[in-house]
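Let's study a protein:

___
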Amino acid sequence: LGYYRNTMIHHFVGGSIVVLGLRSLLIKGQCAVDKQALLPEVRFLSQLLKMEVTFRPHGMMRNFERNLKKLVKRGLIEEDEQGNIHLGPERNEFDFLCTLFWPFVDSYWVAAVSLVCLLKGNRLSEKRLLNHATAAAETMYQEGELTYCESVNVDVLRNAFSLFGEMNIIGAAPSAR
């Protein structure tokens, strides 16, 4: 099933990122979200998932506005006169778009949680860190902390650690000579 998802996912990237950003704010208890408050969430998710998907080259704001309009037209969200975003009547499609990218978000979360093993000054090779994160993801999935088995994905975990390296969260230790 993941194979088919991955071959189609690029058709849904923009809308899914906006919907995930909105869901993250709605989970925090908000009923409506100011469009300008949604933008940082979408920007963060776009940066987080930049190694997993390709975004249109038109720029963040243009893509954001274009995707908002598409989501409103399809009934997934509604925008009032004050620029507040509400859930629309098409909840099933809203949930579907979230579901497409949730395994990626979960994998990045697992990768971040796995970094705890480095706090005590431990140094791990990339292979050992990936093995540790994969084992943690498998345990979390079996214990019900992760919903999707696709979240246990070595390639996505590797991309997450690469991104964390770009962000200077982790780095390679100099090799001993």
